[in-house]
Amino acid sequence: MEHFTPVSAAIGGALIGISAVLLWIANGRIAGISGIVGGLWKPRSDDITWRVAFIAGLIAAPLVYGWAMGSLPRISVSMPPLIVIAGGLLVGFGTRLGGGCTSGHGVCGLARLSPRSVAATALFMATAIVTSFLLRHVIGM
Amino acid sequence: MMPAVLAALVSGLLFGLGLTVSQMINPAKVIGFLDVFGDWDPSLAFVMAAAIPVTAAGYAVARRCRSPLCASAFSPPTQANIDRRLTVGAVLFGVGWGLVGYCPGPALAGLGLGNPATVLFVFSMLVGMGGHTALPSLLSRRIKHA
């Protein structure tokens, strides 16, 4: 894996920004993934289709990219299943309790200069860095 | 109805392409970004550095619109205060993100790539989200008294 990739990262970030702007200007919605998905747990009937459509696009995108480029994007999850389950539970519960994730707080909220999102982003970045440090350099996984 | 659904589909596609192009879809890349004390890869800071100003500019333009193009009204976030729910939730999320390198967007976007760990993560995440939806009264009581 090429280590430092600032250009492709910035292009990807710009695409995410365009996506967020489109969803706001067209649908009046914040592009917060945990909110879009989590909202399906207690949906209103007029509120389901756009969420499902967004998620369908999200899942299709890497496949479309892979089709255009000739090979699927490579991903690697290095943790054992129990850690994956624990991580998934924490991410699911935590993002709903905290009202957002990397996209809703970290991109859309910071773009709106929301104090809640600034606080949330600082907290989840810090705890993610500390967790990663403990796991990789103290426990040695 | 139809234009709104189409806009959401295109928005989801653009979002997923952004995650793919930036490699944020790859948990190993995310771990490299979070591992500031190891062999740090700062690339993903550029994702936020690019996404935030683009979003802010678009939101500024949208302030001239009284309503969205395909919906009756804007649905801005309603909560304003930094409460216990926000801080506890962000901390729990951060721990989960640091454990696996997956946040909700990249995990969902990776579902079609044939990695069983991604499917396991998304399933657990949906259970976690459902757990939060199922226990609101219990939680608010606990956290108020905490």
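qc> Chain A touches chain B through 109 residues (CB under 8 Å).
qc> done
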